[in-house]
Write a structure and sequence with these properties.
single chain, mainly beta, 31% strand, globular
Length: 166
């Protein structure tokens, strides 16, 4: 029953005012969203063909820029490229369907546009934890993001290469 509720909560546009765990019974510490450990895969960022602008371009937004083949983050009201080289986008099947609904909101009732929006003044996203994802994730998707427990670093895959940020 928990799996059905978890799947429904990720698909339907809803509002949740608590912590959410995926693949485990409880959230570690002050996480707003947490994943099983070890995780079987990372978070896959949305691949966009045009960078969000206006109110949709909220600081802290992370996307995979399909045209640049790079992961980008919105900070100080501009887009910064995290992965410095052009990744391989050949495995990406772009979503050509129009966006519908407001996405999934966790911790808020209204906020910026996004497929999954996490809002909290006291809780944070806990990334999926994977030991050496560059060795243990087979055929990762461009825009995959996780926490490398071996290197103790944020790991981001651009479609060609893994990048690690400490």
């Amino acid at each position: 029953m928990k799996k059905i509720i978890s799947i429904i909560s990720l698909i339907a546009p809803i509002i949740i005012f608590s912590q959410v765990s995926i693949g485990k019974a409880s959230v570690d510490g002050d996480g707003i969203l947490d994943f099983e450990n070890p995780a079987r895969g990372g978070i896959i960022l949305p691949a966009v063909t045009s960078l969000p602008t206006g109110s949709a371009a909220t600081n802290g937004t992370i996307i995979y820029d399909y045209n640049a083949g790079a992961v980008k983050i919105r900070e100080n009201n501009s887009w910064t490229q995290l992965t410095p080289e052009t990744g391989n986008t050949s495995s990406i099947n772009l979503n050509t369907s129009p966006d519908t609904g407001n996405g999934v909101l966790i911790g808020t009732t209204t906020t910026a546009d996004g497929v999954l929006v996490l809002e909290s003044q006291t809780k944070a996203l806990i990334l999926p934890k994977i030991d050496r994802p560059h060795l243990n994730l087979v055929n990762p998707h461009p825009g995959t993001m996780c926490y490398d427990t071996y290197n103790q670093a944020l790991a981001v895959f651009d479609g060609s290469k893994w990048y690690f940020f400490k």
